Amino acid sequence: MDAERQFVSFLLHWHGLSRPRRSGLEGLRRTIRQLQGADLPVSDLESPILRMRVTDYSPLHLDELIRTGEVVWQGNQALGQHDGQISLFMKQDFPLLGCISMFAVGTREQHLRDTLVKEGLEFEQIVERLGGFPEEMLRTLWKLAWNGEVGSDSLDALRARLSATVSRYPRRARSSRVRYGGRKRILPGAVGRWTLLSGPASGFAPEPERAVARARQWLDRLGIASRRTLAGEDEGFEHLLPGLEHLESRGMAHRGRFFASDEPEQFAAPGAADVWRVAAEQKPAGVLSACDPANPFGAVLPWPRMKRGYRPQRAPGSRVLIHDGRLVGYLSRTGRRINTPENMTVAAPLIDLLKRAARVSPVYLESVDGDAPYETPWHDELVEAGFSPSRRGYLLRSSA
């Protein structure tokens, strides 16, 4: 197995995606610690990113960690009208790893900061203190949220924005009720107690401590830190090198030759060398969000050449199908189109992974490499695997 394929397999093992997964609240805590600071789309956060790592994952578990203040979420940027990227942090690590945001400009924004700097408030309380139209205040609140300046003790606001409806968890929806005359209306995206994350009293650690913490976090997430594995990241290898050398001096990292034999400066986390050897012996497979930190394609590694010149993207909702260190399929964000690499000639690994994806939700294919499913050379294999042909596409239910 070449080094690139081995690195792909290594990441699946390192993130617990190809071996017995974590479970319970402690498993969720370990997962969040490993993913701290990563840009995670809200639409993919719980399923598949967290659910793929924690066997008995429940939204209520994550809600509990956030409500009690053990976990903090920080917005990174809006993705369209309803989705966005956030990062998760353990509370004790936020001063070391959280983003120190530049303040968004605006009088209303400053008034909101001044109000939240003293204490956390529910949305109804914010409107009562600052006045104005609730819809305008909510837009301002989310402008600061996506800028990483404010956050809440609930994910319900994020979930509600995805569907643009009232949260699925009405037991805490009281905080999003706004009075209109004698009536109350619940505004999607207003749930929770809002606090200032990045401000004068945020308590961020000094930069030297933050630099070491970032190096440690990259090691925990990638297992192996080098110029190649950190290529394309905002904070490149050169910026992290002093922190990595500091970790090495304390026995928290060691140098080695893993990913590329011609690259002398490579640092591995404790235990990474053993996982690297296991990855060379096994053939892990998985269906991941294209935005999953364990997916190296489109980030550390280039996308393989796809049939008919198709160009994959690390887009929310899209899925990558990985087998034995290779990308064998790319599902579009609608889940109805699948594209395969030029060198993909055997259907079995792809179909096995589609069946795995169907265990989570039905798979409905309208096209395979741009052709209708009945026109693909893999038509017989799809039908044999349980896909039901219809006029517009082939359906594989979770029971198949």
Distance between the termini: 33 Å
Provide the structure class. Answer: alpha+beta
* Overall pLDDT confidence: 89
Radius of gyration: 23 Å
- Poorly predicted runs of 5 or more residues: 165-176, 178-183
Helix content: 25-40%
* Strand tally: 19
Beta percentage is: 15-25%
Characterize the main sheet.
Answer: 5 strands, mixed
Compute the number of helices.
14
Outline, from the CA principal axes? globular
Strand order across the largest sheet: 12-13-14-15-17
What are the salient characteristics of this protein?
400 residues; five-stranded mixed β-sheet; 14 helices
Descriptive account of the structure:
- The chain has 400 residues and is α+β, with helices and mostly antiparallel strands.
- The protein has a domain at 303-396.
- It has 14 helices and 19 strands.
- The chain has a 5-stranded mixed beta sheet with strand order 12-13-14-15-17.
- The protein is globular.
- Residues 165-176 and 178-183 have low confidence and may be disordered.
